[in-house]
Each structure stands twice: as structure tokens, then as C-alpha cells.
């Protein structure tokens, strides 16, 4: 029961930035609800998988893939580009905390001088940020690679 309430809470608070960024990206008003739903579903899937000890990068990949596949389905249904539904929906999964901590480590290295601990912390957070962003990119690109791939010219 606690997991279900936690997932509902997660879905609600993931839908808010998805709609906010959809508004920034000038998504048509009739598509805003789909951006909210996709953002909520993708983030909830990631949270659900992390709860069961799936690594964050793989869980992010699966959440972004879910957003991508549903976005492609919606794009066929409503004759719109998939990016209308998907780009704003993945924004809640951007690893902002890891990127922030990496930048803070850089500032601390500049201010206090280099130390092994700060350098290790900076590298760790930058690598986590890069891998999570890569999982988002590949997860969103997967449906396009599977459905829109053309045969090579021989």
C-alpha cells in the first residue's frame, strides 16, 4: 500500500514539470494532458524499478523507452510528431541533482584546491549524469530506431 501511495505521489509531482515544460515548448493545449500522463508514467516506472533494486540508469532507460513507445503511438493516433508528446515528458527524469553536485565539486576544487576526495566526487557525479542522460536519449530514440528504420541501399 505504501508503494502505491508513493507511486501516485511520484506520478503527480512528475506530471507538473512535464506540463510546465510542454508549455515552454509551445505544445498544443490538447496535447498537454498526454505530456502529463507520459511524464507521470515514465517517472513512476523508473521509481518502481529503483524500488526493486534495478540500477538507476537501466530504470531510466526503461522509463524513457515507455515514454517513447507511447509517444509514437500517440503521434500516429493524433497525426503529430512524437516529440510533441515525449520531449517534455522526459524532463522530470533529467538528473539535475547529480549535475548540480558535480558543478559544486568543481567550485569547491577551485575554491579550496584539488583533493582526491573532491576530484573523485566530481568525476562520480559527472559519470552518473552522463549515463542517465544517455539512458534518456537512447530510451527516446529506441522507438524511432525500431519503427522508422529504413533498409540500407545496396
C-alpha end-to-end distance: 56 Å
What value does the Rg take, in angstroms?
Answer: 18 Å
- Helix amount, in percent? over 70%
Shape: globular
Count of distinct structural domains: 1
Helical region count? 6
Poorly predicted spans: none
Let me know the largest β-sheet. none
Quick rundown:
The chain has 154 residues and is mainly α. The chain is built from six helices and no strands.
Report on the structure:
With 154 residues, the chain is an all-alpha fold. The protein has one domain (2-147). 80% of the residues lie in helices and 0% in strands. The protein contains six helices and no strands. The chain has helices spanning 2-24, 32-51, 56-78, 83-90, 96-112, 116-147. The longest helix has 32 residues, at 116-147. The model has no long low-confidence stretch (mean pLDDT 92).
Strand-helix topology:
Layout: H1 2-24, H2 32-51, H3 56-78, H4 83-90, H5 96-112, H6 116-147
Q: What are the salient characteristics of this protein?
A:
cell membrane, 80% helix, 6 helices, globular, single chain, mainly alpha, cell inner membrane, ThrE_Dicarb/AminoAcid_Exp
Amino acid at each position: 500500500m505504501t508503494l502505491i501511495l508513493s507511486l501516485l505521489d511520484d506520478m503527480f509531482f512528475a506530471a507538473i514539470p512535464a506540463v510546465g515544460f510542454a508549455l515552454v515548448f509551445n505544445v498544443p493545449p490538447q496535447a498537454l494532458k498526454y505530456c502529463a500522463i507520459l511524464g507521470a508514467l515514465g517517472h513512476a516506472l523508473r521509481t518502481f524499478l529503483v524500488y526493486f533494486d534495478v540500477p538507476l540508469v537501466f530504470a531510466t532507460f526503461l522509463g524513457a523507452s515507455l515514454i517513447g513507445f507511447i509517444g509514437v503511438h500517440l503521434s500516429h493516433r493524433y497525426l503529430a510528431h512524437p516529440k510533441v508528446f515525449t520531449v517534455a515528458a522526459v524532463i522530470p527524469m533529467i538528473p539535475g541533482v547529480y549535475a548540480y553536485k558535480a558543478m559544486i565539486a568543481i567550485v569547491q576544487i577551485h575554491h579550496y584546491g584539488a583533493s582526491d576526495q573532491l576530484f573523485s566526487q566530481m568525476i562520480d557525479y559527472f559519470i552518473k549524469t552522463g549515463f542517465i542522460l544517455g539512458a534518456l536519449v537512447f530510451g527516446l530514440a529506441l522507438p524511432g530506431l525500431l519503427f522508422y528504420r529504413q533498409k540500407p541501399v545496396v
